[in-house]
């Protein structure tokens, strides 16, 4: 991988169609701007129509003449996921080059999705897994479809509680729930790659993480704690860490942009900053728990059971 890889090295994306979840802000918005500027047709998956329209204006300003579509998508509502998948298949004629599973919520106060799942596991993992499976026909319809799933350094040290994924029988901890969701993302991406390879599919499953990027999610994590002293302390620590370590969004988005566009990317690759929390994009090692085939199979089967979506990774 070229050590000086930047956005300028992204190949021409003309003729390619990309769906980005959570494209209204942060890493998703930046990815939409860059890919549109390189000629891609970009579908912006956004929960809020108002914020989605604002994002469209931002991308148009960054990429004159961009070919854009807004897709209403609430990953915390499986009915919305199904509707969005159907819309994308209609818009693309079943030819989607890249699905970038970027959206997410971080360390929220305990909450539930529309279907009753723990909010972070339900949004970050279940919603994206269902969307991926529902869009597999469109990904297979492209010459070389790619699924880019975002994990996080927060997955390090996390655990999959597959017997209690919604924290119904244990104490809820916002940061631990976020770690489980991001470990689930990584485990799912690896299992998807395993199954795509077994089926001799041309679709690639690739993983990425942004390191520590200034997206505002740290503040959200601090706000999730009820204790006002702890909440204030964490917010101040987050702000100090942001000043010292956090990459700008422009740099944080590079790993997922590389994963989506670089010719040398292979199925199962994990792209992140070379120094874990910051630095140029590089191929990094996935976590051992995420590579466990038994965990991958168990998560796959549980996800199908909970979402009611039939997996189709051919």
What report would you give on this structure?
With 314 residues, the chain is α/β, with parallel strands linked by helices. 45% of the residues lie in helices and 12% in strands. It is built from 12 helices and 8 strands. An 8-stranded mixed β-sheet has the order 3-2-1-4-5-6-7-8, sandwiched between helices. Helix 2 links the parallel strand 2 and strand 3. Helix 1 packs across helix 2, helix 4 runs parallel beside helix 6 and helix 7 runs antiparallel to helix 8. The radius of gyration is 18 Å and the shape is globular. It starts with 16 loop residues before the first strand and ends in a 7-residue tail after the last helix. The model has no long low-confidence stretch (mean pLDDT 90).
Largest sheet: 8 strands, mixed
Shape: globular
**Average pLDDT, to the nearest integer?**
90
Task: Summarize the helix and strand pattern as letters.
Answer: EHEHEHEHHEHEHHHHEEHH
Helix/strand-derived class?
alpha/beta
Proportion in β-strands: 5-15%
Count of individual helical segments: 12
Give the spatial strand order of the biggest sheet. 3-2-1-4-5-6-7-8
Distance between the termini: 29 Å
List segments where confidence is low: pLDDT < 50 over at least 5 consecutive residues: none
Total number of strands: 8
Using only C-alpha atoms, the radius of gyration works out to: 18 Å
Residues in helix, %: 40-55%
């Amino acid at each position: 991988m070229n050590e000086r890889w930047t956005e300028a090295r992204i190949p021409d994306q003309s003729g390619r169609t990309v769906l980005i979840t959570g494209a209204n802000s942060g890493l998703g918005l930046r990815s939409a701007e860059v890919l549109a500027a390189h000629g891609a047709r970009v579908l912006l998956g956004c929960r809020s129509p108002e914020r989605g329209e604002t994002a469209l204006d931002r991308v148009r300003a960054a990429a004159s003449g961009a070919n854009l579509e807004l897709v209403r998508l609430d990953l915390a509502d499986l009915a919305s996921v199904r509707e969005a998948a159907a819309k994308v298949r209609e818009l693309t004629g079943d030819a989607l080059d890249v699905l970038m599973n970027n959206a997410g919520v971080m360390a929220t106060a305990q909450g539930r999705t529309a279907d009753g799942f723990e909010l972070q596991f339900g949004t970050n993992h279940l919603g994206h897994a269902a969307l991926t499976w529902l869009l597999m026909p469109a990904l297979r319809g492209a010459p070389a479809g790619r699924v880019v799933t975002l994990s996080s350094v927060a997955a390090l040290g996390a655990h999959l509680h597959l017997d209690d994924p919604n924290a119904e029988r244990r104490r809820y901890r916002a940061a631990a729930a976020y770690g489980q969701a991001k470990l689930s993302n990584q485990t799912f991406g690896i299992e998807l790659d395993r199954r795509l390879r077994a089926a001799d599919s041309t679709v690639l499953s690739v993983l990425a993480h942004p390191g520590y990027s200034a997206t505002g999610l740290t503040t959200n994590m601090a706000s999730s704690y009820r204790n006002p002293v702890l909440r204030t302390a964490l917010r101040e620590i987050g702000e100090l860490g942001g000043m010292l370590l956090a990459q700008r969004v422009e740099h944080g988005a590079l790993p997922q942009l590389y994963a989506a566009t670089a010719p040398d990317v292979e199925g199962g690759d994990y792209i992140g900053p070379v120094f874990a929390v910051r630095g140029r994009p590089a191929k990094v090692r996935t976590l051992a728990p995420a590579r466990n085939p038994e965990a991958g199979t168990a998560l796959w089967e549980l996800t199908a059971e909970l979402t009611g979506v039939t997996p189709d990774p051919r």
